[in-house]
Amino acid sequence: MKISLLVSQVLNGLATGMLYALMGIGLSIITGVLNIPNFAHGALFALGAYSLYTVIQLVGNFWLALVLAPVGVGLLGVLIEYGGIRPLYKAGHDYQLLLTFGLSLIVTEGIIIIWSPVGMSQLPPPLLRGGVDLGITFYPKYRLFVMVAAGLLVLGAWLFLEKTRYGAIMRAGIEDKEMVSLLGIDIHRLFTAAFALGCAMAGIAGALTAPIRGLNPWMGVDMLGIAFVVVALAGLGNLLGSIAAGLLVGVAQSLVALFWPEASVAVIFAVMAAILLVRPQGLFGIR
Amino acid sequence: MKPWVAILAAVVLLPVFVRHAIATEIWIFAIFGLGLNLLMGYTGLLSFGQATFFGSAAYVAGYLLKYYGINLFLALGIGVVVGAASAALVGYLCVQRSGLYFIMLTFALNQMFFFTAYQWTTVTGGEDGMPGIPRPSVLGLDIHGPLAYYATVAALFLLSLWVMQRIVESPLGKILKAIRENELRAEALGFDVPRMKLVAFVVGGAFSGLAGVLYAMLFGIVPLEAIGFVFSGNVVFATLIGGSGSLYGPVIGSFVFIWLSESVSAMWARWPLLLGVAFVIVVLFFRGGVVEAWARFWTWRAARRAPDRVRIDAPR
Amino acid sequence: MRELTRRDVLKLGGGAAAAAGLGVPAVLRAQAKEVPMLGLWSFTGAFSDVGPVLDRGMKLALDERGMKIQGKTIKYITRDDETKAGSATRRAEEAVDADGVKYIVGPWSSGVALAVSEVAKRKKVFHYFSGGTEDISGARCHRYSFQWAASPYTAAKTVVDTFMQANPKAKRWHLLVADYAFGWSVEKYVKEVGKTHGIEFVGADRHPLGEREFSNYVTKAAGNKPDVVVMINFGLDAVTGAREIFNFGLTPKIPLIMTWSSGVEELVQLAPEIRENIWVGSNFYYTADTPVAREFVKSYQAKFGGPPGYAPAAAYGMTRMLLHAMDKAKSTEVPDVIRACEGLEVDDLVGRMRVDPKTHQTLRPYFFMRCKKKEAMKHPMDFADIIATGSTPLPAEYAACKDIGAL
């Protein structure tokens, strides 16, 4: 096995792994704080990518788009939480599932209506085009950027949750909602903020992915399943675990693709099933 | 007695108004819904991966039908067995968990089966599905004609409905309902709750498997979508819209769902948008499904007609 | 809950009758004055970009005849197959049952086509398809389906022979193939023909249709240190793949062959820098020098602005062949048209075209182009020049269609 090939694959795995971690943390926050299954997570990922594309078409600035896309998706999250999820807090998982599933259909079809079903391409900004000679291997600049950017975002999310007061409230909300509201904190605002944050993270993951994978209306479908795998492996509500699980899944997928490319996606789920058999609480879960 | 009369009437009259292939699909989907509802309505387990059992049965039976020319009864039997076996596997992994975790696991395992079917192209045909599935004759009778196949499927549906009715009225059914009402209490009463849940899974899977084989023979193809999560979501929606609280809910839901999706999809390629909107509206406003909406409508009408004579017996 | 009253049943019955719009089987309205034809195209899904242009191509061919054939009006309907076999099967059946369709052109995806071919056989309707799977005129052949695209063997021979003539030293080839029906067929023959040139296939990877993440495949390709990278894929897959191959620095240093391309539709999505040193094989290119092609390109360009790629050309070409067959048969009945189509020989869109009666494969030229450098382009759509055409048919020993069967 050529060393350069192995290094390239590991780098690929780290880049996708960082994106998986972003998706995982976002979903983990939502499932942890609100305790609802968010089947719209993949569609929001796609929406983030399309928002990036549109902002670039309108304004021509990639960096601005990278900021506006997740903000837009986050704001949509606020609307969804307020209008759709809040009425269903007590309704039970069936209905919450159907709501988010229905929303994913609406968002995906909406993307097709607004942007067309044809897949589109998005070039990276001129600064990040082409590749870099790393000595061992030649690697595209944009992917290195994604690794770094997603890594910083993941770090930022972790710092927010671990080191700030608002983050502590969120973590408390995952642990014990009643206690949090008894302490006088507006539980509704917490839920809205958590949901919006989770959506924004899906949005930025999508935006970062656009120049790598291009855009198509169903680009979020695979991501949804993988996000669930990351969360399940990490243990529900375990945010730090989501980071490790995301990277693990990304690198594992890349390495499997070396030997058995056809099975690279199914293997992820099979590994998850195997791990959960042995450790039902996930790799890092405590509950 | 009354519901059975209505259903028999529907079975007889449907092919007069509706294209035979669509009518057949309605009953197939109803069988699928019955399987799901044993889990969802009666045991309180929201399985979001029923397509796993439906699709697996369709692929296995379809494969044997196509390459080994097995007869109809064997195909149906294999469908039931594969549905039950895959449900046992998935159920075993999932019944230990509950709530959100359970839903996510059923979904993720569904994805695993989906991607296996997607990438194992030599066997399943991958994205193109498995075409060329024959329809063997039943007891010497050729069922290639749309109406003949409809009759076969309708008969199997009626049989399935009867069996499901027996199950829910049996001691097993009562235990499952008890689990739905209060799991801890059921456990305290000495029932092996995980094992009962697994049984529900297996039975539900068996019904789904039967539906899967019939679907494969309907269009002569097992499409990849048959094992995908959209299919899983559709049956959940159809059952909820019919009303998961009753035995007949999935039947009504199947009617509504298939009728809607077939008529709209021919007119507008973007019909899943309307489907999504329908989901959202139903969960926000019509949570009891058709059954509750119907009852609420009549209450409203009665209140309008005789405003001073308030109805004391609330619907439901 | 209230019980059903007689009024309720009547109301329900009325509603059900209204739902009869679900398709009470079409009462043979087709027979007398109309010839219903179905264009089964993708408006959603992986090939959704070609649906609209395929529609254009078929309409152009039908409009040339004033929507009439053999004194009857042609009724042209389209259905979205969603690039899915399940949907295609249902839409095709529905069109045959409810709209009386007797002639199906399409779909675009070769995998989906196999499913539609089954429907054609079962429902005994005429089916014309253009795509890379050799099974339609091979292992799965039957009297009702015809193949318009060149045989993958013809394509492979044209591409490999011509390329080796221009680059005799490029002996190390790496293949990147779409894991799909047409991918397998073309790959098989590229390897066969390659053997005769002493080519060493240093690597061959298959990627799923609709793949967007090519980094893994590209790094593997680079690792094998090939002289040439050969892609056997299509549409957006080909575009994304070509772009990644450029991003990772393989082209333009080493050449990239797009073996079974749609030509214009793909090339227009690549920046000129990326196109440098790309060699393209296609079933149609708009600079083809035949009277029919020149006319077609002129009308298409006048009506739609840009030159047509393989997709609209195929739809146009298939419809023309179908109409020629109806002319020859002097009938619009399916069995007559099938018999007329078998052995049909015309000078049409790509040159001399002949339908092999034993396999229903159209024997015709395949095009090979070389992309131009930015400086050499005379106008924005001047992507490439045709450097060769080849029409070597599939040798009899490879033919998998042993018995095409009866009507």
Describe the overall structure.
Chain A is mostly helical. Chain A has a domain at 25-219. Chain A is 76% helix and 2% strand. Chain A contains 11 helices and 2 strands. Chain A has helices at 3-34, 41-59, 62-85, 93-115, 141-163, 165-175, 177-182, 187-213, 219-234, 239-259, 264-278; strands spanning 131-133, 138-140. In chain A, helix 9 packs across helix 10 (239-259). The model of chain A has no long low-confidence stretch (mean pLDDT 86). The longest helix of chain B is centred in the middle third of the chain and has 27 residues, at 193-219. Chain B has one domain. Chain B has helices at 2-17, 20-42, 51-68, 72-94, 99-119, 121-124, 146-169, 171-181, 183-188, 193-219, 229-242, 249-267, 271-285, 289-305. Chain B has 14 helices and no strands. Chain B is globular. In chain B, helix 2 (20-42) crosses helix 12. With 407 residues, chain C is an alpha/beta fold. Chain C is built from 14 helices and 16 strands. Chain C starts with 5 loop residues before the first helix and ends in a 17-residue tail after the last strand. Residues 1-30 of chain C have low confidence and may be disordered.
Which regions of chain B have little confidence, pLDDT < 50, spanning 5+ residues?
A: none
User: What's the average pLDDT of chain B?
Assistant: 87
Mean pLDDT score of chain C: 88
Number of domain units of chain B: 1
Side by side, the strands of the main sheet of chain C go 8-7-9-10-11-15-16
| Helix amount of chain C | 40-55%
Largest interface: A-B, 44 and 42 residues
Q: Which structural class do you get from the secondary structure elements of chain C?
A: alpha/beta
What oligomerization state is this entry in? heterotrimer
- Terminal CA distance of chain B reads 19 Å
